[in-house]
């Protein structure tokens, strides 16, 4: 009441000044926000479940891939001219984001603050390196390892004689120039078959790509068994 009375007795200019002073005094202090300027900073703040949701792997797995690929990426780039190269961690993140989310290069370039050509180069460079080293990491097991896998499936699900869990999917491709109808799958788009086999530890022991989309899934698996001369039962979906 004293403040209101004082305001009534003063001129309008003084009233405005007093009100401004009161508003500054009574206003709660602003909470300082952390300024995020790049998407890389956002990624560093992801919780483990958020990181896995966006990149389809654990952060520890990502760091393992960076450590594995770093020497090979550096060897590819060390003789290249032009602007400074993007660090390995960022290149791997660009590659994983493209693979996990299937965004166009324009959106990825904007997200990671890179040019479209740089994103394209990073994705194709890392894909090429992974193809080169895949034979060192996706390997059909030895006889001893097969016995360990059989024991693993026996302990895990009480399935006897199992050497691998097999499944496949179709991945979309551009319309081929020749024999394009052979690549149209049952969902009416052009594709290739991708089939994978993993052991009882969820590690891939075989990966095959090549059959056109029109080929039924059940025709792909017998070829695999023929190549590797396997007789134990496979865990598989009923479509096989």
From TrEMBL:
Cofactor: a divalent metal cation
Ranges for domain DUF8040: 39-131
Signal peptide: none
Subcellular location(s) of the protein: Nucleus
GO MF annotations, alphabetized: hydrolase activity; metal ion binding; nuclease activity
Keywords of the record: Hydrolase, Metal-binding, Nuclease, Nucleus
DDE Tnp4 domain boundaries: 166-221
Keyword Acyltransferase: no
The keyword Nucleus belongs to this UniProt entry's keyword annotation: yes
One Pfam short name: DDE_Tnp_4
Record-level GO cellular component terms: nucleus
Family of this protein: Belongs to the HARBI1 family.
Name this protein carries in UniProt: Nuclease HARBI1
Species lineage: Eukaryota, Metazoa, Ecdysozoa, Arthropoda, Hexapoda
């Amino acid at each position: 009441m004293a403040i209101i009375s004082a305001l009534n007795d003063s001129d309008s200019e003084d009233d405005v000044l007093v009100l401004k002073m009161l508003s500054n005094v009574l206003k709660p202090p602003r909470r300082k926000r952390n300024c995020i300027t790049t998407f890389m900073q956002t990624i560093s703040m992801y919780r483990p479940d958020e990181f896995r949701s966006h990149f389809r792997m654990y952060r520890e797995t990502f760091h393992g891939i960076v450590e594995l690929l770093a020497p090979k990426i550096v060897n590819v780039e060390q003789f290249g001219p032009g602007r400074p190269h993007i660090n390995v961690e960022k290149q791997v993140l660009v590659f994983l984001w493209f693979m996990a989310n299937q965004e166009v290069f324009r959106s990825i370039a904007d997200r990671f603050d890179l040019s479209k050509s740089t994103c394209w180069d990073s994705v194709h460079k890392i894909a090429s390196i992974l193809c080169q080293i895949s034979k060192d990491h996706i390997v059909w097991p030895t006889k001893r390892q097969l016995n360990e896998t059989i024991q693993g499936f026996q302990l895990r699900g009480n399935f006897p004689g199992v050497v691998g869990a097999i499944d496949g999917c179709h991945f979309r491709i551009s319309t081929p120039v020749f024999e394009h109808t052979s690549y149209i799958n049952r969902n009416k788009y052009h594709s290739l078959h991708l089939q994978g086999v993993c052991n009882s530890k969820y590690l891939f022991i075989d990966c095959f790509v090549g059959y056109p989309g029109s080929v039924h899934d059940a025709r792909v698996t017998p070829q695999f068994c023929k190549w590797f001369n396997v007789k134990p039962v496979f865990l598989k979906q009923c479509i096989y």
